[in-house]
Amino acid sequence: HHHLYNRESTHNSTIDGAGLEFNHLFRCGVLDAGDMVRIAKLWKTVPERFHCIAGFFSVRKLVTVGKPIQLELKQNINTHKITNEGKNRT
To answer: Burial code of 60-71, b = ≥16 C-beta within 10 A, e = fewer?
Structure first.
């Protein structure tokens, strides 16, 4: 029976302010590999990230902190259907 962590061995850990064991060499506390695997099996990923470009400024304007600014945004919109796989389909 193998263990990833041996509590009997000498390890330079201390107790942190929350009362948990912390190892300054590894910059973390004691890791429970069993819990990590269990949580990984249940992990739900987030949807694919899309990057939208809204436009650019063609003229430089002076911006003053604390003063309102007014921007005009012209849009050219292309419509896409999103498939279940999260990929764009025109």
So the answer is: eeeeeeeeeeee
Nearest partner of 16 among 4, 5, 28, 6, judged by Cα: 28
Q: Which of 40, 69, 39, 71 lies closest to 54 in space, CA to CA?
A: 71
- The radius of gyration computed from the CA coordinates of the chain, to the nearest angstrom, equals 26
Q: Which amino acid is at 51?
A: H
Sheet of 28-29, strand order: 13-15, 21-23, 28-29
pLDDT tops 60 at residue 84:
no
- With a threshold of 0.70, does the pTM exceed it? no
What digits encode the pLDDT tens for the residues 18-44? 787 777 776 666 778 888 899 889 988
Q: For tokens 């987030």, what's the residue? A: 46
CA atoms lying within 13 Å on the CB side of residue 45: 6
